[in-house]
């Protein structure tokens, strides 16, 4: 069948893919990359397009438990055309061709994120995400000739700017009453102090705490909790809010009549997935914030607690964390079975590292001829 398609000039005649310098960029950065075109049979082009797209999508369910209705909404906030640095010819002979491109990101773009199975008010199974994709399409002449197309996801994060930092101190006291109805057994006072309200995702938060248990009852335990407050705002709807505990750390309670004055620690790791806590974020539909709570629990009595808002920022020094739909897999490539060893070698070369200086396309007369782009040393290629 392949020989028949080749004789008739139909079917798949090559593949394209997008290669980027990096997989993650800050808003305002310059995205640089190459479009790699591999041609297995001569082709003539009708149209070429290269676009960058950014979208926020949200799905949720609402209604009674026995009849939840699925809903969705999408905001395509970015759709721009990308120009190639080198002009693309209209005809290609078999070979590999590379074309450089660059695109300036706006510094107000929202960062990528993904919320899964959240809830906010009456909204259940909230799944929301912001994603960025570069799409390329090369339309070829011929009714039975397959067009070449590909897409490549990349991540955008907020610039690493200095956040204004402030210290926080909160205190609270309350009477300890059995079942909140009986005579007071004394008071409990709790005070917490943070040197900074800004913390790195994945780091360990330290909190200076002072507990004075003036009551006649022993404290059951002492806990430090981080809450995530999720807010969903959709057009023509009231905001929906939901809260969940992201991470918690328990400590021994303070005995009756005793005083505790020490540093407490809370690792900022999400207990649901074991990943660093997602940075404080906001987009068109979804935003989430964090608050820290110190809670003193008494058996059969109301807890005494203090809470304060905190800001979680991205840890630029940490290795990238693979998150579904945030940093996508490599671009989809149409595989063309090779008919000799040269095609196999070209396949291996297409997966190697590259740089803009490795572009090498030569013109001979009116045609464009592909030359070997580069050859890596064997020691490097084996890594």
UniProtKB/TrEMBL annotation:
Which biological process terms from the Gene Ontology are attached to this UniProt entry?
Answer: protein transport
The membrane-spanning stretches of this chain are: none
Q: Where is the Arrestin C-terminal-like domain?
A: 184-315
* Pfam families, per database record: Arrestin_C (PF02752), Arrestin_N (PF00339)
GO cellular component, as recorded: cytoplasm
Q: Which domain of life is it from?
A: Eukaryota
Q: What is this protein called?
A: Arrestin C-terminal-like domain-containing protein
Q: Which organism is it from?
A: Phytophthora nicotianae (strain INRA-310) (Phytophthora parasitica)
Q: What is the lineage of its organism?
A: Eukaryota, Sar, Stramenopiles, Oomycota, Peronosporomycetes
